[in-house]
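User: Okay, second chain of the day. Same drill as before: sequence in, structure tokens out.
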Amino acid sequence: MCYGVDYYPEHWPEERWDTEEAELMIDLDKFFDAATSARLNLRLAEVMSDIRTYGIRLHKDRRVLTGYAYGEFYDWDLYFENIFLTYYGISAYNRNGVEMFLDQQLECGFVARTMGVSCLRPRHHFKPFLAQIALLGSRQTGDYRWLLGKYYDRLKKYLDYWFWFCDFDKNGLCVWDGADHSGMDNQARRCGQDVMTVEGVDLNCYLVRELWAMAEIAVETGRTEEAEGFRRHAEKLADLINTVFWDETDGFYYDRDERRQEPVKIKSIAGLIPLWLGIVPEDRAKRLVKEHILNPEEFWLPYPVASWARNEPDYYQERRGGECTWMGATWIPTNYMVFHGLMKYGYKDAARELADKTFRMVLEEAATREYYNGETGSGQGLNPFWGWSTLAYLMPAEYQLGYDPTDVGLRDFCTLKQA
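Assistant: Same drill. Structure tokens below.
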């Protein structure tokens, strides 16, 4: 759901917590000219002020993070919001967010994917990012003790829910409960409208990453046998992604309608997410990049990457009414995934261009916005926004450093301090 631009509650919390004194752990000035650096530093100061003043909320005695002015907490948003805060050495909101959601877990393992002022989407299971959020925070501090008790067990139950209750034909691939569940709110033609029928390429890629993250957590908490089990499951799921979703004729990963047992032949950015995992064979990666990502008739708009291919019949850019549109508009978290996928496969020129275009698009607006028109670069949605779009400010530096904070195997966050 998207509440209209410039939506604010009547009262703001007055507390100014630990982000007030936070400083960047990396010197971004060396990556830009003086004028750009000055503008970037001003923007980052504005973002941190918004996070400090409006984004840190108190929920049942926990300080928790949201990028949304109306006070709702969302599943995958927490992951990307907290990646941004790693650059300031802030880790507490990883743990707090995971605990907040797992504390309201049902006995069957279900965890609602939103929480806050209205508890929207009560039937949607938390997208596969909880373990990655837990790992992100624990890697920063080196402290996994908080996971030794109930939260490790609850993470396992939440993952089991995906594979038991969201895989009706038991082929190993899970389904979305409609487009809104996927986070790509209005891609109903791709993954349905409030129905559990479509095995999402994106969903199952996120699940591979969750299994990897759980394997890392298991190692750090002394559960080596369980770690091997998570790794084997991840390998099997990655093989299924490459076997079931890949279309050799089109050179693309398509979602699959589980009930009809046939591909959903619609090109959306979900079909590019396997690159982020690094599980795509080299020849397939080349086709994804050359035939699709860099194709101006599909995904490579003036401000890439389109969330819905330009040559799909229902492609459009500007929001219609109060929606958040994923029918072509450019979103920073998916740009971020594709960017790191390009880096993994050595497409450095394309990665650099994507990082630079994304950075310029976001910085040239008067404030950080929720998402963007991929043809004009103009911002849409919430204004100002201090959530996942902030990752755009870091992409050029990550390109220069070859640094990927989403790498599940990354062990040493101290390298960021030394960069």
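The longest strand covers residues 56-59.

User: Thanks, on to the next one.
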